[in-house]
């Protein structure tokens, strides 16, 4: 792609052309040399969108809930971007990117852009390129960006560092009361969504989560956010309005307390650090003097320890 074609591509993407948006995200995923120019062009508008993360165990109904949230947001006149991350095979690297199939209701809506992304072995529930893809969707004019993680366990909490508001989806019968007080994914929720609430055990799950939240009550600082708990049956489009209302209430709290700026500053710092570390790794590989492989040979031979080798590598870089 010619450098001169980037402004045209950005203009088409801002106009809502799905192929142009897809091309931009493909450039992000492939690590295109045009990324600095794209990022610079998108920077003024990249912070305008509300970023909402949806996470939870496999089978809890994340895709169905995402689909219904898109419907509700579109009814309110919002332009919506969806990034749905699917797991990739540790053996072949392949992935079945099925979320666009599940969200066919919105396939022809020009106000919705849906992109499935493979995790490509990246841990934490997201793909490595997800933060940059979020910036693309926000920068080309999406009012809301929904990020759906892969099915996660108790420790995959990366979505909390990316989203303004994090929804943790639960379902009745997927754990006992002890799970509700364990550290990990349940601690990152701004809003709990008890999906499939027409099943037996939904009330018990609701009480368990409310009890978990109450346990943190005495230590909660005045004015801090108390996570909302919402019941829903996404497959029947029930409770979706309550989810949207909880997200909007959290958004208002973020703005009122300036926590939106705090969260986005932390997100920007993490992204800057990741990019800087990536550039440093690339420079290590290009060093004309002692290479990383040579230093590794010395460590294996016992003539150098890892700490001294690391210092030597940094000295070479300087």
Question: Helix and strand layout, with pairings?
Answer:
Layout: H1 5-14, H2 18-29, H3 35-42, E1 50-56, H4 62-75, E2 80-86, H5 99-102, E3 112-118, H6 130-139, E4 144-148, E5 165-170, E6 191-194, H7 202-215, E7 228-231, H8 240-257, H9 259-285, H10 292-301, H11 306-317
Helix pairs in contact: 1-2, 2-6, 3-6, 4-8, 10-11
Mean pLDDT: 83
Structural class: alpha/beta
How many β-strands, per DSSP? Answer: 7
Largest sheet data? 7 strands, parallel
Query: How would you spell out the order of helices and strands?
Result: HHHEHEHEHEEEHEHHHH
Task: Tell me the β content.
Answer: 5-15%
Low-confidence stretches: none
Span from first to last CA? 34 Å
Strand order of the largest sheet: 3-2-4-1-5-6-7
The radius of gyration over CA amounts to: 22 Å
Properties at a glance:
single chain; 318 residues; alpha/beta; 7-stranded parallel beta sheet
Written account of the structure:
The chain contains 11 helices and 7 strands. The radius of gyration is 22 Å and the shape is globular. The model has no long low-confidence stretch (mean pLDDT 83).
Brief characterization of the structure:
This protein is an alpha/beta fold and 318 residues long.
